[in-house]
Amino acid sequence: PKPQNAITVAVSSRALFDLVEEQRIFEEQGLEKYVEYQQNNENVTLKPGPAFYFVKALEHVNARLLELYPDDEERFDIVLMTNNHAQVGVRLINSINHYGLTIERFCMTGGQSPIGYLTAYLTNLYLSADSEKVQEAIEAGIASATMFTANKDVAYSDTQLRVAFDGDAVIFSDESEQIVKEQGLDRFFEHEQLNENKPLAQGPLKGFLEDLGKIQKKFYAKNERLNCPIRTYLVTARSAASSGARVLKTLRSWGLEIDEALFLAGAPKGPILVKIRPHVFFDDQMFHIEGAQKLGTIAAHVPYGIAQKYHKSS
Q1: Which is deepest, 48, 61, 201, 314, by most CB within 10 Å?
Q2: pLDDT confidence of residue 85
């Protein structure tokens, strides 16, 4: 598809594939040894990385879209966005072909930051294993997250893309989270009830949730709601009774549907995510990411909002 018609998901090579050993060689022995190793192993297929099954699920959605809308270009376009050198490209191409992935657009920046190219590619979502690049992308206004591998292998659905989002500082702005951190929970509950009918401002991943909703509606239009290959989840530490209404009314004011909303009232998110088995779970707080990882969920950290300041100071 032409970039202006597609939903572009840019994925780094370390998010798509497991390059832990290669990264170690790069850090310990330098660039020349790293490139030499990659060239010597270019016929050795790379193992899946944290974004691999998410990309596979996006491609399944594309296949279903093409059946229903053969001439429509509004679908996911995966771009490999890497600061690798072109000499490493053959191994990446061989691995992509081995798994039958459809990734035609490559951007290999030879050690330079790829952030400028994200804008040129009209990127809707950027996933990387490099937290500094993700921070740079967020600051440039691009929806972005740092991918973390799960600590256990679990089976993911290969017929339905499942994406789970935290609420504050991910789909919504961090305005309410600021009150929790600075004035405590009681003041937060009071604030949310007073402002129940005032929509929250948008957060960095609102646009991507919107993109998913747009694609879902294409299936609904063909009477495929019950068989839709995308399912979205809101997994929030908020309590339903005391601070849930504002969230649901905000989504409604945006014209967005979320398939399942889980209000956990501060309970851990990991066990709920085990049940959902999302291809990716987006959260702004590292302790939720770590809790999800431990129980086998692939989690992605969105470095946005006040929680980052508290995370750094602790």
Answers
A1: 61
A2: 86
Whether residue 89 is contained in a domain is answered as: yes
One DSSP character per residue, the chain reads --TTTSEEEEE-HHHHB--HHHHHHHHHH-HHHHHHHHHHTTTSPPPB-TTHHHHHHHHHHHHHHHHH-TT---SEEEEEEE---GGGHHHHHHHHHHTT----EEEE-TTS-SHHHHHHTTEEEEEES-HHHHHHHHHTT--EEEEE--SS-----SSSEEEEE-TBTTTB-SHHHHHHHHH-HHHHHHHHHHTTTSPPPB-TTHHHHHHHHHHHHHHHTTT-GGG-SEEEEEEESS-HHHHHHHHHHHHHHTT---SEEEE-TT--SHHHHHHH--SEEEES-HHHHHHHHHTT--EEE---STHHHHHHH-
Q: Do residues 220 and 276 share a domain?
A: yes
Question: In angstroms, rounded to a whole number, what is the distance separating the alpha carbons of residues 103 and 86?
Answer: 16
Rounded to 5°, angle at Cα 22 from 17 and 26: 135
Give residue 13's identity as a one-letter amino acid code: S
Examine the pLDDT at 314 and tell me if it is beyond 60: no
Q: Are residues 79 and 186 in the same domain?
A: no
Q: What proportion of the chain, given as a percentage, has pLDDT over 70?
A: 98
263 in any annotated domain = yes
In a domain, 155, yes or no: no
Please give the positions annotated as active site: 166
CATH number of the domain bearing residue 228: 3.40.50
- Reference 166, options 264, 252, 309, 255; nearest CA is 264
Domain span including residue 217: 161-312
Q: What is the pLDDT of residue 313?
A: 38
Residues 134 and 224 in one domain: no
Q: What is the mean pLDDT of residues 28-54?
A: 95
